[in-house]
UniProtKB/TrEMBL annotation, chains A, B, C, D:
PANTHER family for this protein: ADENYLOSUCCINATE LYASE
Protein name: Adenylosuccinate lyase
Top EC category: lyase
Upper classification of the organism: Bacteria, Pseudomonadati, Pseudomonadota, Alphaproteobacteria, Sphingomonadales
Source organism: Parasphingorhabdus marina DSM 22363
Keyword Lyase: yes
A Gene Ontology biological process term: 'de novo' IMP biosynthetic process
Amino acid sequence: MIPRYSRPDMVAIWEPESKFQIWFEIEAHATDALAELGVVPKEAAKAIWAKGKFDVERIDEIEREVKHDVIAFLTNVAENVGEEARFMHQGMTSSDVLDTCLAVQLTRATDILLADMDKLLAALKTRAFEHKLTPTIGRSHGIHGEPVTFGLKLAQAYAEFERNRERLVAARKEIATCAISGAVGTFANIDPKVEAHVAEKMGLEVEPVSTQVIPRDRHAQYFATLAVIASSVERLAVEIRHLQRTEVLEAEEYFSPGQKGSSAMPHKRNPILTENLTGLARMVRSFALPAMENVALWHERDISHSSVERMIGPDATITLDFALARLTGVVEKLLVYPERMMKNLDRMGGLVHSQRVLLALTQAGISREDSYRIVQRNAMKVWESDGEIALLDLLKADPDVTAKLSEAELEERFNLDYHFKHVDTIFTRVFGN
Amino acid sequence: MIPRYSRPDMVAIWEPESKFQIWFEIEAHATDALAELGVVPKEAAKAIWAKGKFDVERIDEIEREVKHDVIAFLTNVAENVGEEARFMHQGMTSSDVLDTCLAVQLTRATDILLADMDKLLAALKTRAFEHKLTPTIGRSHGIHGEPVTFGLKLAQAYAEFERNRERLVAARKEIATCAISGAVGTFANIDPKVEAHVAEKMGLEVEPVSTQVIPRDRHAQYFATLAVIASSVERLAVEIRHLQRTEVLEAEEYFSPGQKGSSAMPHKRNPILTENLTGLARMVRSFALPAMENVALWHERDISHSSVERMIGPDATITLDFALARLTGVVEKLLVYPERMMKNLDRMGGLVHSQRVLLALTQAGISREDSYRIVQRNAMKVWESDGEIALLDLLKADPDVTAKLSEAELEERFNLDYHFKHVDTIFTRVFGN
Amino acid sequence: MIPRYSRPDMVAIWEPESKFQIWFEIEAHATDALAELGVVPKEAAKAIWAKGKFDVERIDEIEREVKHDVIAFLTNVAENVGEEARFMHQGMTSSDVLDTCLAVQLTRATDILLADMDKLLAALKTRAFEHKLTPTIGRSHGIHGEPVTFGLKLAQAYAEFERNRERLVAARKEIATCAISGAVGTFANIDPKVEAHVAEKMGLEVEPVSTQVIPRDRHAQYFATLAVIASSVERLAVEIRHLQRTEVLEAEEYFSPGQKGSSAMPHKRNPILTENLTGLARMVRSFALPAMENVALWHERDISHSSVERMIGPDATITLDFALARLTGVVEKLLVYPERMMKNLDRMGGLVHSQRVLLALTQAGISREDSYRIVQRNAMKVWESDGEIALLDLLKADPDVTAKLSEAELEERFNLDYHFKHVDTIFTRVFGN
Amino acid sequence: MIPRYSRPDMVAIWEPESKFQIWFEIEAHATDALAELGVVPKEAAKAIWAKGKFDVERIDEIEREVKHDVIAFLTNVAENVGEEARFMHQGMTSSDVLDTCLAVQLTRATDILLADMDKLLAALKTRAFEHKLTPTIGRSHGIHGEPVTFGLKLAQAYAEFERNRERLVAARKEIATCAISGAVGTFANIDPKVEAHVAEKMGLEVEPVSTQVIPRDRHAQYFATLAVIASSVERLAVEIRHLQRTEVLEAEEYFSPGQKGSSAMPHKRNPILTENLTGLARMVRSFALPAMENVALWHERDISHSSVERMIGPDATITLDFALARLTGVVEKLLVYPERMMKNLDRMGGLVHSQRVLLALTQAGISREDSYRIVQRNAMKVWESDGEIALLDLLKADPDVTAKLSEAELEERFNLDYHFKHVDTIFTRVFGN
C-alpha cells in the first residue's frame, strides 16, 4: 500500500481496527446464536456485546507471545469481558473468523469499487453525449482508417466498463460467503444454525461446504476479475496517452496552473496521470497470479494463502479504487480538441474515404480485385505525397474510375456525415433509449 | 498443441478446414442479409451458397502472395463462385469475419468444456455418495486435524467444479458476440441488420459497440476463467497426489496391468496422471496473462492480439478439455482404501479428539486458557510418543481433568460418529435433496 | 507450435526423431563408459553403436502399452540390437536420459538464438551508423522533448540486445548440464565417471547434485531470460509501431508490391510485423511463469514439470527464434524518412529548445525558479498555437529575457547540432572504437 | 510492505529520508563535477555540501503544489542553501536523479540479500554435514524410491542457493548503473564527465546509452532473478512441509514453548513458517511480470514504470529479505528425526531395494524385460501388503530368482550403505574439499 496511490475509505477497510471490529462482531453474533441454541448462557452473549472491547496494541503484544492472532484477540477481549468470555468461539476455529472477516472486507471494498465504477460510467456517458457527433479519425494499427466520432470512442469505453461492472457484481457474489463450520468444516462442535445467523447478520451467504477455510477458487475468480478491470483501465489510459502525443494532440489531460511537466523542459505537458494508470494496471493484473496459485491448498487447508492475501487483499482493492477514481477525474476534465481532430482527419488527402470508392467501383460492375487495384494505385500516390495530393483529384483523373463514376458520384463518396448515420443506433445499444 | 495432451473433437474446432467453413458461413449469411436489404442481387447470395467452396492449400498459396488471410480466402472462394463473388464481403472488414469466427470457435469449444465438466461432476457425485460416510482424517497444514469423510472431500470438489461450471457459462456468454460493423465499427457501409442476421444464424448475440474488433476484455475474462478452472483441477490433482504418497496411501490412481512405473525401480506406482494435471494446470493458468495484455489495443484496434490468440485459443481449450477428461477418468477409477484411512486416522493416539476435550473442560467451568493448557500438555506427550501413548489414557490420569470429567464423559469425547452428524446437511447443501 | 510462427531449424530440434537420436547417443556413450569401467562387455557397447536403431512409430506403439516413453524407446532399440541391448541403461533412470536430452536440445536451441541475435545486432549496427546523425525528435511521455538522432535510438536497441546476448550466454550455461546419477541421484548403481563421460561427449557440464532430475531453478532462470529478451523485442517493435503512426510516419515497415493492408481500405500500410512481434513477445513472456512454478518439485522429484516443458520447451524457443528473425528483417528493410523526422522536429515552433534557454537565463543570473516561469509562460503560448508561433520570436519580445540575453545569444540556443556533440561518445561506448 | 513480513535494515533503504539523502548526494556530486569542469562556481559546490539540507514534510508540501517530486526536492534544498542552489541540477533531468537513486537503492538492497544468502548457505552447509550420512528414503512422485541421506537433500538446496547467489551477483551488476545524461540522454547540456564522477562516487558503472531513463530490461532481469530465487525458497519450504506431515514427520519446524498451533485443536504443531514462505514466494514471483511489462516504454521513455517500481522495488526486496532470513532460521533450528526417517525407510518391506535386484538379475543373464517382470510381480505383492510382507522373503522363495542368485547374493542387495558410497563425491562437488 503506497500512500500516494491510496484513498482513505478503502484504506480504512484494511486497517487493524476495522479487522478486529469485524472479528468482534462475528464472535458476538456467533455467541448470540449459540445462546439461542442453549449451548451457552444468554447472559454470556449479552455480556460480550456489553463489555466486549479490544485494543490493537494489546493484541499485538499478546500475539508476540502466542504467535497466533485469533488467540491473541480472544485473550484481549476476555481481559475486558471477564469470565463469561469463555463462551465465545465455542466450537469455532480461527479460520471461521478470519475467512468470514475477509469476506466482509472484500464485499465492503467491492461496494466502494462499484461506486467508483458508477462515477466513471457517469463521466464517460456525459462526455460521450457531449462528443456524440465530434468527428475524428478512426485508427487501426495506428494508421488512419475511416472517420468515427469521439463520442463513439467513449461509448465503447462505457460499454466495456459496464461489462466490468457486471463482472464485479458477479465477483462480489463469489466472495460474499460465511463459514462457521469448525476445525475441518464438519460442524462437529458447532451447529450449522450459528453459521446461518452470522451470515445473515454480516450480509453474507452461507458457504455450502468449507474445509476449515472458504475455498480459494472464489478469491482467484475475484482477483482475476479485478485484473481484467485493470486491463480495461489500461486500455482507456493508453487511448488518452496516444491522443495526447505531440503529433496527434486531439485531447489532453487537464494541466493545472501550478503544475510543472519537466524539471528540464519548461514546455512539456505530459500525460502523466494515464501513464501512471498504465503502471497501476500492471500491478493489479499481476495480483491475479498468486491468487490463482492459492487455490491448490493441501488437503483441508494450508496457510500459504494467508501471506498472499495480507498483501493483495489491500493492495489490489486500494490500487484499483485509486485507479478508477483517477481515471474518472481524467475523463471528466479531459481537454478535447475537435479542431485538431478535424485537421488530423483531413491530413491524409482524403485517403480515409478509399473504401467507399472501392465499393462504388464494385457496385458499378468492376470485379473486387480490379477495384482494389485501381483504388490502391491512386491511394499509394497520396500516401507518398504525405497527403499533399488529394485522392479525389487523382480519382477524377483516372480513366478507369471515370469510366464508371461521374464527378458527382465520386464527390458523394467523400461526404463525412455518411459515416455517422448509425451513431444513434450504437448509442441506443450502449446507453438505452 | 501437443498431440499427447489433445482430444480430437476439440482439435477439430481449431483446424483450418473448420475455420474457413465458419468464415464461409458468415460471408454467405451476410450476403443473404445484404440481398434481403436489396444491396446485392438475391441471385448472388444464392450462388454463393450453391457454388461456394474453398481449398485450404489454395488459400495458403494465395496468402503467401497477398499476405492477408481473409483476402486470400475471398479470392479462392471467388475462383469457385465466379463473378457473383464480388457481392460477398460488401461493406465488411476482415475482422468482421475473424472475430465472429473466433466467437463461434470459442463457443463451440466451451460447449465441449461444459460437457467435460458435466462428466466430471457426475463422477465426483457418484464417488462422493459412495464414500459419504467413509471416515478419514481431515488435515490442516498437512497435520492431522479432526475426522472428516472421504465423501466430504469429494463433495467439496463437486461444489468447486459446480461454481466453475457457472463461471464457464458466464464466460461463454462473454465471448459469444458477433460483429459485422465495417472498417472502424460505424456501419458506414453495412446496415446493422446484416450483423443481426449473421448473429442469429451463428448462435451469437450482437456486439453492442465494436471498433473493427470485438473488444478484448471479453476474451481476457474468458481465459481468466479457464485459468481459475485449471487452478481447481490442480487442487484436486494435488489432493490425490497427497493421498497416494507412500506414507499416506489412502487412495491411488488406477494402475493398469501393462503399466510400468519406473524404468529403474519396478516397485513404483506413481500418481503420474495427477502430476501431469498439475503441470497442465500451470499452462492453462499462464495463458490468462497474454489474454489480459491483449485488452489495451491501440485506438480502434491493433493486431497484436492475433498471434496470441492463434496460440492460446487452441492451446487453452485443448489442454483444459484434455485435463478435465483425464481428471474425470482419475476420479472414476480412483482406488480408495478405507482401511488405510482408518489406520491413519488412529495413528496419532487419539489426538484428533483433542478439541472436544477442550470444549468439555470449558463447559465444565474451566477457563478457555486453562483448558487449552491442560489439553496441550497431554497432547504434546502423545505427539512426542508418535502415537504410541493414547491421549485418552493420559487424560484419565490427569487430576485436573478428572476433577471435572468422569471416565464415561471422557470416552464419549472420543466417539468418531459424533463428527459426522452434519454430513447430511452438507450433502444436501451441495447436491440438493 | 504454430507453423506460421516457426522456422525449420529450430523446429527440427524438437522433433521426435531428434529427441530419440539424442537419447540413443546418451545411452550409447553411457554404455561405452560402463564398458570402460568393466561393468558391461565392450562388445555390447560396440553392438549398440553398430546396430542401434529406432523407429518413432514403433516407439509410440510400445508406449501405448507400457505408458512409459523411455522404456518404450529401450524396448524398440533392443528389438534392433538384440540380446546385448540388456547392457544399455545399466544403473540409469529415465530422467538421466530425459533431462540430459533436454539439456542438449536447449543448448542447441540457444545456439540458434545466439546466431539470431548476432544477425539482429549486425542489422542494428548497420542502420545505427547509417543514421548516426539523422536528427529526430526525442520524446518522453509521447511528447516532444529535445533532439536526438535516429542512430542513437538504434544504438540504444543495440546495447539492449547486447545485454540480452550476454544474458542468453549465461542462461545457456545454466541449462547445459548432464545428469547420469541413477534413481535418486546417489550414483548407487552407476559410477560418476559415466556421467562425466556422457557430459563431455554431449558438450555439457556435470550436474553437481541431481535428485533423479536436474534441478528446475536452472530452467526457470533460462525461460525467465527468454522472457526478458522477448520484452526487449516488444520494446523495439513498439518503437517502430509508434514511428509508423499516420501522424508521425518517420519510419515504416517495408511494404512489398503484392501486399494488401486491409480488405476494406486499399490505402492502408500497417505495421503488422511489429504488431505481430508485440503479441509474440507476450507469449514468450508468459512461458516464464509455469517454468518458475516448476521449481518446487516434491522431494527428489515429481513429474509435473514434464507437461509444462513439452509445451514451453519448443514453444518458447521456436517463437523467440521466429521473433528475432522477423525483427531482424524489419530492421534491415525499415524505410526511414529523415525529411519527415525533421518536419516533425520543427512542428512545435522551437519548443524543443526550451531547456537551453532556461539554462542560459539561469547562467545569466536569474534564479532557477524565475527562469522556469519565464520560459514556461512563453512556451505555453507556442503550445497553444500548435507550433504556429515560434518560441524564438516570443523570447525576443520578452523584456525579462532580452534584459539578460542578446538576440545572437538567444539564436545560438536554437542550434540543432549543439545536441549531437556527444553522439560519438555514446557510439564509442556502445560499439567500441 | 507489510510490517509483519519486513525487517528494519531493508525497510530503511526505501524510506523517504534515505531516498532524499541519495538524491542529495547525487546532486552534490554532480555539482562538484560541474565545478571541476568550470561550468559552475566551486563555491556553489561547496555551499551545497555545507548548507544542503532537506525536510521530508516540506518536500511533500511543495510537491502538492508543483506535482513534481524532483522539483519539490530542489526547491526545498534551495530554501536551505540559498542563491547558490541555482547551480544544482544544471543540465540534468529528473530521471538522472531518480534512476541513479533507484540503482543505489537496489544495489544496497541486493547487498543485504547477498548477506542473507550467505547466512542461509552457512546454515544449509552446517546441517548438511551434520546429516551427511543420516539415511532417509528418497522419494520420486511422492513414492518411496531408493535411499538417500538427509545431508544430500540439504546439499542439493545448498547448490541451488549457491546458483541463486551467483544469479543475484549478476543481477546486481545489471542494475548498478548511473545515468546523468540530460533530458533525452544526449548529454546536450551536461558533460559525460559528470556522469562518470557521480557513478564512481555512488559505486555504480556508467550507463552506456540512456534515453532520459536507464533502460528497463535491466530491472526486468533483476526482478526475474528475485522471482527465481523465490521459487527456490518455495522448493525448500515445500520439502519441509512434506517432511512435517503427520504421516511422515521426519523433520519439524522448531516449536517454541509459548506457541499455539490452533485455537481449536491443542495438539497441533503446524509448519506455518514454511507455509508462510510458500505464500511469500508466490508474491515475489508475481512481481517479475510488471517489471517485464515495464520494458517497452514509449520512445525515449514514458513514466508507466514508475508506479510499478514504487511498489515492487520495496515489496520484492523487503519480502525476499524476510523470506531468506525466515528460511535460514527454519533450517538452523529444524528438528530432525533420524529414527523416524529409518522407520519410514523400512516401512515398505524392502521395496526400495528393488532396482538392485533387477540389476543383479540382468547381470546374471536374464533379459532386462524378464528381470523387470520378475521383480515387479514380487514387488506388487509387497506393495499390496502395505509393507507387511518383506520383499527379500518373497525373492528367496521365487525359483526364477533363486535359479540365478544365492541367498547371500540377494541379501547383499538389501545393504543400505551400498547407496551412500558416492556421498563423498557429491559433497566434494558441492562444498569443495
